[in-house]
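2024-03-11 09:14:02 DEBUG pipeline.ingest accepted 1 chain
2024-03-11 09:14:02 DEBUG pipeline.ingest length=198
2024-03-11 09:14:03 DEBUG pipeline.predict start
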Amino acid sequence: MRVLSKLILRLIGWRMEGELPGPKSVLIGAPHTSNWDFPLALLCFWSLSIPGRWVAKHTVFRPPVGWLMRRMGGIPLDRGATQDFVSQVVDWFHREEDLTVVIAPSGTRSRTERWRSGFYWIAHGAGVPIALGYMDYARRVGGIGPSFVPTGDIEADMERIRTFYADKVARRPERVSEIRVRAGPADDGSSGGTPSVD
């Protein structure tokens, strides 16, 4: 898959840069504005042999393609039980020696007023780094940027994230969500984006 993914990326004029901070991390997928973000991101991960698990709303896992989504590393999220989901993923990190979970914090391809903060509280609870993954359509580069272990000061940490993504160009810039979250862990989401291709 690594060789094939690199070949496909080369053929379509994309390349991958960066690397994960270690065996465990929460990898942000942003900006997320297009149906094509998901397949491009998978190609980028595979090209680096990243065995990432990704989060998406549970409706994506319905038949007839649900089995394939799970086989490709998908984790279904029931948004009605988000806080339980955050706890579950934190427990996974405590049990596993090697785990990367990919989350699109905007939770949708459409523009929203804020990100869902579940990605932050998962990383904070598990004591693992947040890695800043991106798809930059201006440069045709998929990448993994800097990483940091969340401090618990979510406002300060979100400022770091905003600064990093300021120059990353989405496929549909008009759909880019505001990079801000609610301050407390009682937020409604660790939602992942929907990886469908219309």
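2024-03-11 09:14:41 DEBUG pipeline.report Residues 2-175 form one domain.
2024-03-11 09:14:41 DEBUG pipeline.predict end
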